[in-house]
Design a protein that fits this description.
This protein is α+β, with helices and mostly antiparallel strands. It is built from one helix and five strands, in the order βββββα. GO terms for molecular function: RNA binding.
């Protein structure tokens, strides 16, 4: 599709992108490969399939994984 712009709305299965031309386009996550510019100028490619789902649920899942990993690492250190 080749859109460039800013993500203005993230929903469970789609993103709404404000394009450089000023239009809002809807993109389905499961069909997209998203390229994001990191603060250092490096570009990161992300498969939209890993972003499917409610954004808040993804944050909860990430926190659970990190806290579980930290607990297992602390057991290894002792």
């Amino acid at each position: 599709m080749g859109l460039e712009g800013w993500v203005v709305v993230e929903e469970a299965r789609s993103l709404r992108i404000l394009t450089l031309e000023g239009r809002v386009s809807t993109v389905l996550k499961d069909l997209a490969v998203i390229e994001v510019e990191a603060p250092g100028g490096e570009y990161i490619r992300i498969s939209g399939r890993v972003l499917i789902g409610n954004p808040l649920d993804r944050v909860k899942e990430y926190r659970w994984r990190v806290s579980r990993r930290c607990r297992s690492l602390s057991r290894l250190k002792t």
